[in-house]
Amino acid sequence: MSRKPVVRLPGIAPLLVLAAVAVMGVLVILPLVTVFHDAFSKGVGAVIAALREPDAMAAIRLTLVVAAISVPLNAAFGVAAAWAIAKFEFKGKSLLLTLIDLPFSISPVVSGLVWVLLFGAQGWFGEWLIDHDVKIIFALPGLVLATILVTFPFVARELIPLMQDQGVDEEVAALTLGASGFVTFWKITLPNIRWALLYGVLLCNARAMGEFGAVSVVSGHIRGLTDTLPLHVEVLYNDYDFVGAFAAASVLASLGLVTLILKTALEWRHAGELAASRRH
Amino acid sequence: MTGQLTLSPIPTAGGAARPRLARWRERSILPGFGLSLGITLAYLGLIVILPLTALAIRPWELGLSGVWATLTEDRVAGALKLSFSLSAYAALLNAPLGVLVAWVLVRYEFPGRRLLDALVDLPFALPTAVAGIALTAIYAPNGPMGELAAKVGLKTAYSPLGIFIALVFIGLPFVVRALQPVMQDLDREVEEAAQTLGASAWQRSIHVILPTLAPALISGVTLAFARAVGEYGSVVFIAGNMPMKTEIAPLLIVIKLEQYDYAAAAAVGLAMVAISFGALILINTVQLFLARRGRR
């Protein structure tokens, strides 16, 4: 497994490296730098003031609540789906895999739209919900449902290939030696998949907290009530409050950076315990 | 010692298990199949199948002619055309950019290589609204790149070019990440053999390396395209959203919903899903064909 890059000097190599750095610099790194540059253009005080606004605080709180509900549900689903798909052989498995991946190929806006079609005022269940005074769209449940749909495959698709690689030998050994099903899962399977699970949860959480398109459709933009942090960024930006918008954006960008660092650390340190496609 | 224990509970092809093919699943001593599959199907049904069924059914409230009228409405048709064509152009530009970045990351050692490698995922990690306002600030007429572009007479933000830039940004990691593993596994001996036989660097790239990369490149470009078609957050700020000029298809769904025209919104959404799936199937077929030819 020697994948050491070979040094080839001189020739075209330095030019290619420079070109790649230039592409990445202008296209990817410049936007990141811009977020922090524009946020702090009026000093640290302005950023702190913008984040201490009641609406900003409410948006941060709502974002945390939505993620705290959506991520564990998708993680539990991911583990269950991976157990069924990776440890057993049954018909229709590839269809199931396709359906699990489906939300990734759908526009975020469509992922929000579908919930409005079901639960909106003129949705299939709209009248029933109004009669029973249940609010889903323009309220927390809608935000949670949209977020769950958008982040649906993250954990499952990290776990399934890894658990397929690992096979069933260890679990069979434990069961043969008299362990119960639960003990086998807890003591054998879970330790084997913990880093991949963490990896999936990490990506799932980053997307859940940063989601914009899907939640913007179901939120209704009620300030201080149904605006998550990314939606708050939009509101401030459209109000020409650029320092405020970039201050809120810098919080989200930091979340993205922390996710990136943890993800890279996992890829380097626990490469053997992640799905093969994640190994560097 | 593990001789008896490695006995697989899943009967492999051949042997006594074959006659019982009628069973829809193969026997296993592992517990929890019913429970885990039950949870999976129930959750999948509630979160994915039920909502998508609504998407598939609701447009037809308008009738076939109504759906057609909605989709051929100037504003809708314009938005669909804009979204799909700009996504295709952006994905095509991502191909050379992705090959360049992936090649440099895999083949060369230089200070900061691992940092650059980690930063490739930034467009995934950065929330789309954040990327959206940052790109707008950069490419707006008074932004650093916007000013530069204005000097050569180009309007970047609030024009199709601005949308294109945002879509290139969002698609780059798909191509780089698809190519890297294949590039790492490239057999150097084949390249060296070609070199020994007198192939120039250019000939080696075109006739030896590129054909090996083609399937991964196509799949990366496809993923970038699919993502770009549905992209909303990073595009909607830089687009300027002028009807018929810079309105993207996802924005039109939002507009239809704001007019409480659910069926029309669903029609646009369904059309987007249908067109992207058609494109995906087409590209997958091409890829399968290439893979088969490569194996021969």
Q: Which superfamily, in CATH terms, is the homologous superfamily of chain B?
A: MetI-like
Assign the CATH class of chain B: Mainly Alpha
**Strand fraction of chain A:** under 5%
Question: What does the radius of gyration of chain A come to?
Answer: 23 Å
Oligomer: heterodimer
> Greatest interface and its residue counts?
A-B, 105 and 97 residues
What global shape of chain B is seen?
globular
Helix content of chain B: over 70%
Q: Helix share of residues of chain A? A: over 70%
What fraction of residues of chain B sit in β-strands? under 5%
Tally of DSSP helical segments of chain A: 13
The succession of helices and strands of chain A, N to C, reads HHHHHHHHHHHHH
Mean pLDDT of chain A, nearest integer? Answer: 92
* Strand segment count of chain B: 0
Broad shape of chain A: globular
Detail the poorly predicted runs of chain B.
1-21
Question: How does the major sheet of chain B shape up?
Answer: none
Average pLDDT figure of chain B: 88
Radius of gyration of chain B, rounded? 25 Å
Major sheet description of chain A? none
What's the short version?
The complex is a heterodimer of chains A (280) and B (296). Chain A has helices at residues 13-39, 44-52, 54-87, 93-101, 108-119, 126-131, 140-151, 154-166, 169-176, 181-210, 213-219, 229-238, 242-269.
What this model shows, in words?
The complex is a heterodimer of chains A (about 280) and B (about 300). Chain A is about 75% helix and about 0% strand. Chain A has 13 helices and no strands. Chain A is globular. With about 300 residues, chain B is mainly alpha-helical. At the A-B interface, helix 1, helix 3, helix 4, helix 5 and helix 7 of A face helix 1, helix 3, helix 4, helix 5 and helix 6 of B.
Give keywords.
heterodimer, A: 280 residues, mainly alpha, 13 helices, B: 296 residues, MetI-like fold, 0% strand, globular
